[in-house]
Write a structure and sequence with these properties.
By secondary structure, the chain is mainly α. It is built from 16 helices and no strands. InterPro entries: MFS_dom, MFS_trans_sf, TM_effector.
Length: about 450
């Protein structure tokens, strides 16, 4: 008989802090991730503002993310292969060093007045690629740092880190640029990144198990062959793509702030922050997630809640279309406060549901995938994470342009709920997945 997993002993609804209190190496890495990631968000916002100040072009700003997409995907896949062949501590340190040097170069150029749009593109691409390698490698480390029984708690803590970074970083970056300057903002990131080096440098050696091929096509084929025989991992990828394609309205939020709900950039900031607030709150109250055994069903139900919240957000925009709760004209200076509050609540719901799904997905990845393949599967996951939101931006932008801003969210929410139900019904192994007997 299988004995109960130790993680089921945590009975509080609040976040399980045992990965931090019982595993000092993970705690140092987590603190480094939080501070280093916050610095990275400062730079992302500063680079966008800097690009707009140099060019006055929204397209030039949008091209920053687009230009870094392919390098990020390639680096994520290759980084996963590196993480399955070399000591993961060394791989992460090397990639983080590239990020630090490129950020320091950006700060130096800013202090000397040598920044132009091509430097911003080039260094953003380098940062994006290096961070993909760091991300794939750090995710593959977690089970060895905390033990498989505390992987769900570690995933919730990492989700909280991401939420805090996204919630505070862009806003703080904008404030720092406005009050001080671009060079100061970039320099703060350079300093904050030192904490990530401390977390990585003090890790023990983390050599992967098994005998992966030398990074290259053979290693990639090995990883894809494993994925072909891993129906549960494939299904969670497919479900995540569905969620991000039809439930990622970030691309229309600037227009929503001006044309639909009013209030302009301030409203857009609130709507964007609401998603991150939901992520943080769901992490704070994630204590019971570690006891959930049927994680496949948990992923599906969380994504369906995500879809329902997306639908409700769309209906809020539809209500604005009919002028509900509006006291006068709606524009950048006049806001429909009641509907803005409702929209923020529903977007917070999407952030919370997505984070719960992410906890289960990361737990499944790190418990069911053998250590020798974990880096490569994390690399493939980066492709999913990078591609889904961008397809979603195209979906939302196209339908909002052809019809109205409420249409893609209402349609997307219904599509998510229906497709996830069909996918769950079609996959018996995913429905039956048991965390006490994890199978990929």
């Amino acid at each position: 008989m299988t004995s109960p997993a130790p993680h089921q002993e945590h009975r509080s609804a609040l976040i399980d802090l045992r990965p931090l209190t019982q595993h000092p190496a993970f705690a140092r890495l987590w603190i480094g991730n939080l501070l280093g990631g916050l610095g990275g968000q400062l730079t992302i916002m500063a680079v966008m503002l800097h690009m707009y100040a140099l060019t006055g072009s929204d397209m030039a700003v949008a091209m920053i993310a687009f230009a870094g997409l392919l390098p990020m995907i390639v680096a994520g896949l290759y980084g996963g292969m590196l993480a399955d062949f070399f000591d993961r501590r060394i791989v992460a340190l090397s990639a983080a060093s590239v990020t630090w040097v490129s950020t320091a170069m950006l700060a130096l150029l800013a202090w000397t007045g040598g920044v132009n749009e091509w430097w911003l593109y080039a260094l953003s691409i380098v940062n994006s690629a290096a961070n993909s390698i760091v991300g794939a490698t750090k995710s593959a480390m977690t089970p060895k740092l905390v033990g498989k029984e505390l992987v769900p708690a570690a995933a919730a803590l990492n989700g909280m880190t991401m939420g805090l970074m996204v919630m505070a970083g862009p806003a703080l970056g904008g404030v720092l640029v406005a009050l001080f300057s671009y060079p100061v903002t970039y320099t703060i990131d350079v300093i904050l990144m030192l904490s990530l080096f401390l977390g990585l440098w003090t890790l023990p050696s983390l050599k992967p198990e098994g005998s992966a091929a030398t990074p290259g096509l053979k290693s990639l084929r090995q990883g894809l062959a494993f994925l072909q025989g891993a129906p549960n991992i494939r299904m969670q990828y497919v479900m995540d793509i569905v969620a991000m394609t039809f439930g990622h309205p970030v691309a229309i939020l600037p227009a929503v702030g001006v044309l639909v709900l009013g209030g302009g950039e301030i409203t857009t900031g609130f709507l964007t922050a609401a998603i991150a607030i939901g992520t943080v709150l769901s992490s704070v109250f994630s204590g019971r997630l570690g006891a959930v055994r049927r994680q496949g069903v948990g992923i599906a139900r969380a994504i369906q809640v995500f879809g329902v919240c997306t639908l409700l957000f769309g209906l809020t925009l539809l209500a604005a279309r009919f002028g509900w709760f509006a006291d006068g004209p709606i524009d950048a200076q006049h806001a429909n406060v009641t509907l803005i509050v409702l929209a923020c609540i529903f977007l917070a719901g999407t952030g919370a549901a997505d984070n719960v799904s992410a906890v289960f997905r990361q737990t499944m990845m790190q418990q069911a995938v053998p250590d020798e393949f974990r880096g490569r599967l994390q690399g493939v996951f980066i492709v999913v994470v990078a591609g889904g939101p961008r397809v979603g931006a195209l979906y939302y932008g196209t339908l909002a342009t052809l019809f109205a801003h409420w249409v893609p969210a209402v349609a997307g929410g219904m599509i998510i709920v229906a497709l996830i139900a069909l996918l769950l019904r079609a996959s018996t192994t995913f429905r039956a997945y048991d965390s006490l007997e994890p199978r990929p």
